Amino acid sequence: MMGLKNLNLANRIFNNTLALTIASAGQLVGNIILFFYLSRLLQAEGLGIYSTVIAIFHTVILGCAVVNPYIPRELSKDLSQTNRYLIHGGLISAAIALILTIGLDLLVPFLGYLPQTEIGLYLISLAIFPEAMNVVLFTMFISHQKAKFISFTSLVVIFGRILISLLALYLGYGVTSLIIIYAGFSYLSLLLNFIFLRRFILAPRWEFNFPFLTKMVLELKYFAGTTILNMLFSQSEVIVLSLIGGETQVGFYSAALKLVTVWAMLPTSYATAIFPVLSSTYQESRSRAVDLQNRSLKYLMALAFPLAVGICLTASLIIPLFYGPGFEGSIFTLQLLAWYLPLAFCNMILYRMLYVRGEQHIVFRIQFASEIIQVVSAVVLIPIYDWNGAAIALILGNFSYSVLSIFFVARDKSPLPLLQISWRFILASSLMGAYVWICTPVLNLFFLIAGAVVIYLALLLILRAFSNEDRLLFKRLLSFSKDSPPGQPSTVVFDIKE
Question: Torsion over CA of 197, 202, 206 and 210, rounded to 10 degrees?
C-alpha cells in the first residue's frame, strides 16, 4: 500500500464530495419543488418563461467562470498565494461581470420574447455581479478543501429562496416575483461566503501586482476560450427552442430536463472535489493520477447506467407524479434525456484530466466541436421534432464530447479501459431494466424502485463488480470520521501496484 505525501485522498475526496453533493442536492430538490408548484399554478407557459430566463442567466454567468478551473489547479500547488489569487481573480471576474451585464441588457430587446420574459431578463441581470464574485470565493473554498462552507451557504440560500418563492406564488404573485427573489438571494449568498472566507481562510487585504495580473490573464487564454464557448452554447438547445418554439415548448422540455439534471449533481460534486487532489497527485506521480481517474470513472459508471435505464423505463410514471396532467408531452423527452447521464458522468472526469495534464487547449477544441454539433443539431431538429429535437441535440452534443475526450485522454498511451470498467454495470443495469419493464404495469413507483435497487446491488455482488481495493476504500470512507482523530493523516486508499 503506497501513500501520497501528506495527503489523505480518501478523506479529502469523500468529505468534499459529500459537502458539494449536499449543496447540489438541496439546490436541485428545492428547484424541483418550485417547478412542481409553478407547473400546476402557471402551466407550461409560466414554467417556460421562468425556465427561459434562468437558462439565459445561467448561460451568461458561465462567462464569469473563467477562473474556476484555473485557480484550483494553480492555488492547490501553493496555498500561501491565496490572497494574491483572490484579489486578482476578483478583479478579472468583476470586469467580466460588468461587460456581461451591459451586454445582456442591450441584447434583450432583439430576442423577440414575451414582455414578461424581457422584464425577467432585465431583473436577473442584476444578479450577474454577485454570482461572478461567488465563483471566485468558490475556488478559494475548493482549493483549501473547505467545501462544507459552500454546502452551508447553498442550503441556506436555496431553502430561503424556495420558501419565499412558494409564499409569493401562494399570495398570487407571478413569475416576475420569483426572478426578483432569485436575484436578491444571490447577494445573500455572496455575503455569507465572504463571512466564511474571513473567518476560516483569510481576511482579504489589498494586493495589486500588475505583472501577476498580466500573467494570470495570459494563462487564462485557453480557459477563457472554453468559458466563452460555454457561455455562447451552454443550454443552446433551450435557447434555440425558446426562439423557434416559444416559451411553452421550453416548459415541456424543462420539465423533463430538470428530472435528469437533478442526478448530474453526483458527478459534478465528485469531480469538483477531486480536481485539486487529482492536480496535486499528477505532480507527484502520473501513474497514480491515471489510477485515480479510472477508479473515478468506475464509481460514476456504477451510478450512471442504472439511473439511465431506470429513468427511461419509468418516465410514464415519473412525469405525472411531479407535474400532474398536461405534461404528457414530456414523457418521451424524459426517456431520451435519460441517456444524457452516462455521457455527462464520463465527461466530468475526462475533461478535468486534460486540464490536469496542462492540455486546456485540447479541452477548448473538444468544447468547440461538440458545441457546434449541438447547436446545428438543435437548429435542424427542433423545427421537425419540437422539444424532443432539443433533447436529441443535447445527447448528440454530449456524445461527441465523450468520443473526443476519450480519444485525447488515451492518446498519450494512458490506460483508459472503459469497456473493462463498465461492462458489469451495463449488464447489471440491463437485467435490472428487464425487471422494471415487466413489473411497471403492476407495481407502484416506490416498490418498483426498491426492487430495482435490490436487484442491481445483488447483481453487482454476483458479477464481482468491485475489487477488494474498492471495498476497502468504501469501508474506510464510511468509517473514517469515527475512527480517525481530526487532522490525523491515514493511509491513502488509492494504492498502485508497481
Answer: -90
Confidence check: pLDDT of 484 > 70: no
Domain that holds residue 299: 246-416
> CA-to-CA distance for 113 and 475, rounded, in angstroms?
53
| CA dihedral over 155, 160, 163, 168, signed as positive or negative | negative
- Using the CB atoms, write b or e for 386-396: b if 16+ within 10 Å: bbbbbbbbbbb
For 153-210, the DSSP string reads HHHHHHHHHHHHHHHHHHTT--HHHHHHHHHHHHHHHHHHHHHHHHHHT--------H
* pTM value surpassing 0.85: no
Report yes or no on 105 lying in a domain: yes
Question: Is 199 part of any domain?
Answer: yes
Identify the helix (H) or strand (E) that includes residue 490.
none
83: helix, strand or coil:
helix
CA gyration radius for the chain?
A: 22
Separation between Cα atoms, residue 242 and residue 238, nearest integer Å: 6
Q: Note whether residue 451 is domain-resident.
A: no
Those residues whose C-beta lies under 8 Å from the C-beta of residue 370, and which sit 6 or more positions away, are 397, 398, 400, 401, 404
Please tell me whether residues 359 and 338 are part of one structural domain. Answer: yes
Q: What is the four-CA torsion angle of 425, 431, 433, 439, rounded to 10 degrees?
A: -150
Q: Tell me whether residue 30 is exposed, middle or buried, using C-beta atoms within 10 angstroms of its C-beta: 0 to 12, 13 to 18, 19 or more.
A: buried
Q: Are 244 and 383 in contact (CB under 8 A)?
A: yes
Dihedral angle over CA of 369, 371, 374, 378, nearest 10: -130
Structure confidence by residue, pLDDT tens digits, 376-428: 999 999 999 999 999 999 999 999 999 999 999 888 777 788 888 889 999 99
270 and 133: one domain?
no
